[in-house]
Automatic annotation (TrEMBL):
<protein>
    <submittedName>
        <fullName>Family 10 glycosylhydrolase</fullName>
    </submittedName>
</protein>
<feature type="domain" description="Glycosyl hydrolase-like 10">
    <location>
        <begin position="52"/>
        <end position="383"/>
    </location>
</feature>
<dbReference type="InterPro" id="IPR003790">
    <property type="entry name" value="GHL10"/>
</dbReference>
<dbReference type="InterPro" id="IPR052177">
    <property type="entry name" value="Divisome_Glycosyl_Hydrolase"/>
</dbReference>
<dbReference type="InterPro" id="IPR017853">
    <property type="entry name" value="GH"/>
</dbReference>
<dbReference type="Pfam" id="PF02638">
    <property type="entry name" value="GHL10"/>
</dbReference>
<keyword id="KW-0732">Signal</keyword>
<feature type="signal peptide">
    <location>
        <begin position="1"/>
        <end position="22"/>
    </location>
</feature>
Length: 531
């Protein structure tokens, strides 16, 4: 077989953006060194790249996902992280949402907050031997072409299962007036400016120091109400139970200061405004620091009672958590919303498809809507899901043009392949990889064409990459007769192998495009053609 090599460079043209798929609108130009670019017939172009956000939450709180238990060695923690990332890559996921701040603590070295006890069993104690877990996760995720979104709990200061004493630099000791005891938890008071500033400073510190792809906050704003004196919390909210004699959050000092200063809002509206103020500032200041870092929020799945579709009922985060997610969407204070749609398809009072349509309908700014799925219900001791429940929910999301992906809670279920869920996903919905949908409101200039050379080597075509400064991943199409196959490679990979097929033989043609941190795609260029 005659060996052929191609090298490419140039300026990419703008691409049409939006929807689940993004197609190249201009035929790719292939350049053999020393020759004039030649057009490739449009009939020979590969299909559009599949686009879908496929992520899983990795919880550090209570050691739900990682590390599997406290006080593992640094090497054991790293081995578990690599196993999670390898499984995510094998499943054709494209992002991990890693909890980096479970309770006003950190899984990375911080001057603002102590090390988390979920790493070492003692708050304030670093992993041994010392390493930076967040940097490790980011490096290993990017090496596999996966995004890494840093997940922060905005206000929780101590979980009810915490066992070690608070470290000297924990906010409950450095600023006790900003922390309130609520049931078995400690909670940062959103009405205290110093508490909100602490959260914002922590988030921006991570954005500045780490090469993350996203900032993610969860559904814990004001705490889930508890019945005095029991602790029902968000489990009761998911079950749709109304609280009895709820214990009010003890924020009288900050409320009285607001009233004394001439504030005119009622208490519920004031609480919502406290949260809104943090959300708005977080969105603005994240993008002032790094425009490509997307900001995502995962609120409770039920919206405001006065806007709900007929037949939908249950817990009101608007009235109980003081979370006005509709306002965040409609003001464009986030880049993606992952509402926790944690109910089965058949549960009519919280119908998955109706709720998904509701959130899509609230999305007047055209941000991403990527619902959260309760995948960990599979194999659970009670309210057990069958894998088909999750398969169907993904299918419903795919049928909605306004929904471009989903997030699994949590990774532990996929690591255990409960009831064969991994097998069903890779045989169906995840049979091929997908690019993360683009975020054109943050920037829509395509990256330059990738620089690639290609040559036959044994039973494969070997691609050698020269990474561009803006590249995050490469999209690779290979054609075997009439069949196109799609792959995603990390921009840090020096080489990519396009193997011969056992049945169909060698690839007839290979195309490559560059994709930047915002999901913008260059033109696709032909880097190999079978002689």
């Amino acid at each position: 077989m005659k060996r052929r090599a191609f090298a490419f460079a140039g300026v990419a043209s703008a691409l049409a953006l939006g929807g689940l798929l993004a197609a190249c609108t201009t035929p790719p130009k292939a350049t053999v060194p020393g020759t004039v670019p030649a057009q490739v017939a449009s009939s020979e172009l590969p299909p559009p790249a599949p686009r879908e956000f496929r992520a899983a939450w990795v919880s550090t709180v209570a050691n739900i996902d990682w590390p599997s238990k406290q006080n593992l060695s640094a090497q054991q923690q790293q081995q578990e992280a690599i196993a999670i990332l390898d499984r995510a890559k094998a499943l054709n996921l494209n992002a991990i949402v890693l909890q980096v701040r479970p309770a006003a603590d950190a899984i990375y070295p911080s001057k603002l907050e102590p090390w988390s006890e979920y790493l070492t069993g003692a708050q304030g104690k670093a992993p041994q031997p010392w390493y930076d877990p967040l940097k490790f996760w980011i490096t290993e995720a990017h090496a596999r072409g996966l995004e890494l979104h840093a997940w922060f709990n905005p206000y929780r200061a101590r979980h009810n299962n915490a066992k070690s004493p608070a470290a000297p630099n924990h906010i409950s000791r450095t600023n006790p007036a900003a922390v309130k005891s609520y049931g078995k938890f400690l909670w940062m008071d959103p009405g205290e400016e110093s508490a909100s500033k602490q959260t914002l400073d922590v988030v921006l510190d991570v954005v500045k120091r780490y090469d993350i792809d996203g900032v993610h906050i969860d559904d814990y704003f004001y705490p889930y109400p508890i019945e005095a004196p029991s602790a029902a919390g968000n489990d009761a909210a998911l079950d749709g139970k109304a609280g009895k004699a709820e214990l009010d959050f003890p924020d009288q000092p900050s409320w009285q200061r607001y009233v004394a200063s001439g504030g005119k809002l009622d208490k519920a509206s004031w609480r919502r405004e406290n949260v809104n103020h943090l959300i708005e500032r977080m969105y603005k200041e994240i993008h002032e620091e790094k425009r490509w870092v997307r900001f995502g929020i995962s609120p409770f799945g039920l919206g405001r009672p006065d806007r709900r579709p007929p037949g939908i009922s249950g817990f009101s985060q608007y009235d109980k958590l003081y979370a006005d997610a509709e306002t965040w969407l409609q003001n464009g204070w986030l880049d993606y919303l992952s509402p926790q749609l944690y109910w089965p398809m058949s549960q009519t009072a919280q119908a998955y498809d109706v709720l998904l349509d509701y959130w899509i309908g609230q999305n007047t700014q055209g941000r991403h809507v990527w619902p959260g799925l309760f995948t960990s219900r599979i194999g659970a001791p009670s309210k057990d899901y069958q894998p088909q429940e999750i398969i169907q929910q993904i299918g419903v999301a795919r049928s909605r043009p306004g929904a471009g992906g989903h997030v699994h809670f949590s990774m532990v279920t996929l690591m255990e392949n409960r009831k064969g869920i991994d097998d069903q996903l890779t045989a169906g919905h995840y049979a091929q990889p997908a690019l993360v949908p683009a975020s054109p409101w943050l920037g829509n200039t395509p990256p330059a064409l990738p620089k690639v050379s290609a040559a036959r080597a044994g039973n494969a075509v070997k691609l050698k990459m020269v990474p561009g400064k803006a590249d995050a991943v490469y999209a690779v199409w290979s054609r075997y007769g009439s069949q196109w196959r799609f792959a995603v490679a990390s921009a840090g990979q020096a080489t990519v192998t396009v193997a011969d097929d056992a049945t169909l033989g060698q690839a007839d043609a290979v195309f490559v495009s560059a994709v930047d941190r915002l999901g913008n795609e260059s033109e696709r260029i032909q880097v190999w053609r079978k002689s």
